[in-house]
């Protein structure tokens, strides 16, 4: 399974008989799966099916779905409103009994407001059911296109973060191999500092100084941080190979990378190791920025 980005776009047209429609799907980063659906009046019953299909296909991302539809027909039906017509005829008859007047003509009756209405033909239930099924089927195609685009983008991000993981490992190894991190080097440097303090002539507790030096030596040892960096590198590579919705787990490991690099910088007693720690922080920030786009 490959990595998937959370950003993408898909467009799908469809038609059935006189009905034409278009799907537009836009996806951006999101903490979870947030779907927003916009459909024309009369298509509200599709919303639940739309959200169900999206939740099946995607785990994370803010996805906006828009359906537009138009019925391309010029057929207009003339419909007589029987209630209005009956009322008009009854009034004409009553007035005819009271006054001497010509009987109403058909064109006059049809010109009475509300008697004659012109409507577009309304599709029957069978037609509507078939149209809705076809619309949802084309949505599946749009979802597949969006997933393909997110996957292609995810593969690009995957290649980039692989190189960043390699870079983190290289820097961790560089810090590990720095002469200043060797226990002997740390002990020698602290021993020299203790001797300089003793040579000042100020009365100092020599045993206490050696104890404090031992504590400082333990604090200056970055062996554990280096080991954890190598462990996190291996975990990141395994997640990238696993693919799928691993963005959150990679983000957690990015936080762990950052924690170790901060500790290395704070423990460092050599400019060369501090420089490596700062390089690590820059690379880890870039790594974390990229994985924010992953599902």
From TrEMBL:
Location of the Endoribonuclease YicC-like N-terminal domain: 3-157
Metal-binding keyword on record: no
Domain of life: Bacteria
Cofactor(s) it depends on: a divalent metal cation
Residue ranges of every copy of the Endoribonuclease YicC-like C-terminal domain listed in the record: 185-295
Keywords per UniProt: Endonuclease, Hydrolase, Nuclease
Pfam families in UniProt: YicC-like_C, YicC-like_N
Family affiliation: Belongs to the YicC/YloC family.
Full protein name: YicC family protein
Organism field: Hoeflea poritis
Organismal lineage: Bacteria, Pseudomonadati, Pseudomonadota, Alphaproteobacteria, Hyphomicrobiales
